[in-house]
Please model this.
Amino acid sequence: KNTVIAIDGPAGSGKSTIAKIIANMLGYIYIDTGAMYRAITYKAVKMDVDPDDENGIVDIVRSSDIDFSDGKILLDGEDISEQIRMPVVNERVSKIASIKDVRLMMVDLQRKIAGKHNVVMDGRDIGTHVFPDAKYKFYVEADIVERAKRRHLEMVEKGYEIKLSSVIEDLSERDRQDRTREFAPLVKAEDAIAIDTTTKNIEQVTQDILHYIRR
Ligand code: C5P
Model:
């Protein structure tokens, strides 16, 4: 049976950076489940389908092919790893991710991937819903302003002109939607190990996690 390491938490907590490093060190596959919801959102933006048009969004999911290759996300065969970080995707993704039928299809794909490989999977509902029996579960958190500062720096490095205050707004609004949605909301799994990264660097957090895994 394959091993699943679930890493959940709010936006900008450092999950994906940490998950990638852990996957590399253990020789596991890293799966960014947020990228899957973002891919659908990006396609909806391109096709001009409103996030509130649930049937339209579900149709997009049904007719889309999402795949990962070499750390890139492929949508219908095209690498869209850069496009899914656009501000318009940030704004719309949580609405789209709140649609139950969208989630059911994404979760199906996530379980299929983990059926073939050992995985480190990051997201919002991996330890609670996708793999409630995951061997290892972590819940990574940090103070909202710290998270926004990190995300702001990333966006600026990518060439986006954006204010810190609007990143704070984006993260808070997504967290709110992710925590209050009806189906599989963002919440710490009872048996997940909580890690606060506010005052820790990536190196320290990675060491903490590896310590638990190797115990
Ligand atoms: O992780 P990231 O911030 O890229 O995720 C983007 C959005 O996708 C989240 O704000 C959330 O709405 C949604 N998401 C989700 N469940 C997951 C991963 C992401 O609902 N497992």
